[in-house]
Design goal:
Number of domains: 4
CATH topology of the largest domain: Rossmann fold
Largest sheet: 9 strands, mixed
Protein name: VWA domain-containing protein
Number of helices: 18
Radius of gyration: 31 Å
Structural class: alpha/beta
InterPro entries: NorD/CobT, VWF_A, vWFA_dom_sf
Helix content: 25-40%
Pfam families: VWA
Amino acid sequence: MEEWVGSIWHKFIVQKSNTDFHGARVEFNDVKKSVGILFRSLGGEPSKRIEAAAPRDYVIRRHLLDKIAGTKLQTSLAWQDESSLRLPQSIAVFDSKHLNRELYMWLTVLAAHSSVTFTHWAKDNQAIVATILNRYPNLRPRYNDLLGAALEQRVPINKLPKGMQSLEKSVIEALKYPELPMEFPEANYAPQAIYLWLYPSEYINANPFKDTTSSDPEQSSPSESRKLESHQARKKTERVDDSNTKDSLMVFRLENLFSWSEFSKVNRAEDDTEDTDSKRVAEDLNLITVAKGSQQKTAKLKIDLDLPAAIEDDYPLGKGIKQPEWNYKTQQLVPNRCLVQPLLLRQCKPEPLPTNLQANAKKIRNQFEYLSSIKHWLKAQPYGSEIDLSAWIDYYVESKASVAKDSDYYLHFKNENRDISCLLLSDLSMSTDAHINDEKTVIDVIKESMLLFSEALTAVGDPFAIYGFSSVKRQHVRFTILKNFGEQYTDNIRGRILGLHPGYYTRMGAAIRQASDILAQQQHSQKLLLILTDGKPNDIDHYEGRFGIEDTRQAIIAARKQGLIPFCITIDKKADQYLPYIFGNNGFTTIYNPSQLPKKLPLLYHQLTQHH
């Protein structure tokens, strides 16, 4: 009985304290596509993700009712950093769905014109608003509508404590007249949330008007700067020093106790395996604490554990080839930064085409054989074997209306040999060891795709090469040779493909540059670079997130300057979040059912080359 009464009381108090308009709530997912288009059309960084942000701590003066209900400790605010723009997970600030949607759009416009960091939060926001309203006068009525609704939601100045009144007055004046310079006095608490402004990415203390200083990004390793991501919204994080592991508590069953020689201190944060329990816990946390550990030592230990002994590893060919890498922070191409190591598989032997692929291979060969010599009619020729009826009718009509000029109205039958070469570059990272069903893994599907692709191009007669790649940091980019342009497609090549095994990480930029250099040497008018992958660029050093995406994009730009046609085929269902920026909207395709990749890869090649 007491619990029931308590739950009823709690529900009543929370409802009385809550000032949101639930009936007018607009979810981020409802406007995600619209704000993405708006942000980029106004000059926002194309590589930035636009995602929902969980409510964050905001220290304001609360009423007694709020304290009893335990509400208003957190507020949904908009903010951005170098990698993404974070908009509220939902907005129910106003009693109108239209105004709540307009607030999403206004915050997006604001983000497209603002910097990641603030020198003075309030003054910078005021200046950005003034700039936008001067540049886009048509936005002023929308801003005034939002401003009027926002001011109605704020507690009147005369009902605030005297210590907060002068600050609130300055805030309101800055919102009403963004063009006028304003001074903002300090106070013990932050002002009421200003939903029309962007907030800093760093945590806001009681006084949000102090100058913002940011830490040196070069001193943070990728794993430090990585934020845990939930399926719904971004969480705020804080960093603390790693505690001494000797003081930790270990819970174990006696029969599972390791000997001292079997134990290694490996930072769990560096593990690539998915932990569903951790994700579930992250969903429930408002603030996630990340310990500062010895990432460089962890990375070094990870290399020693992952790489096989030299006697068991694939055969290296030469000392490696140096390739540059793009540093997006300095906007420069750093020469000789990566070392690409060509490799030949050690454990492989000649193999025939697997029995389960022979029927599909025969069908694909029959489809591609007719492409070996394209025959077509050339229209409106001065001579030919047949009349071009369309050209002759045009000539006849013109001759009746006026004096027609002599016209070419013959059809000429012409044989035209294909002048195309293709290089297939496949991702062989450790993620390809994942199962797509009970029978096959991703690497199995990639092998079958390579084999059927080779059967198709052998039938059509187009020169082609196949390479695979993975990496362990920038000094070890593995570039596996499966078939070069000078080799015939034989059982030896099939044996190499069938002997493939998952590798390590995905340093895509260096591999693309190496493949581009090889393909650019071919003497053909059409050079197609196909890239087969199952995920985004990443590695265990700094090469992840935006760094890897920007480097890969620059590698694709360089490939196009070499006269190549890069095209990406992916089975990553989240590829639309980053591949349009790297390859362009028409430069990639997603195979949502990976088991269909072997059949679709040759057909994609046919579609890409049918007009050449």
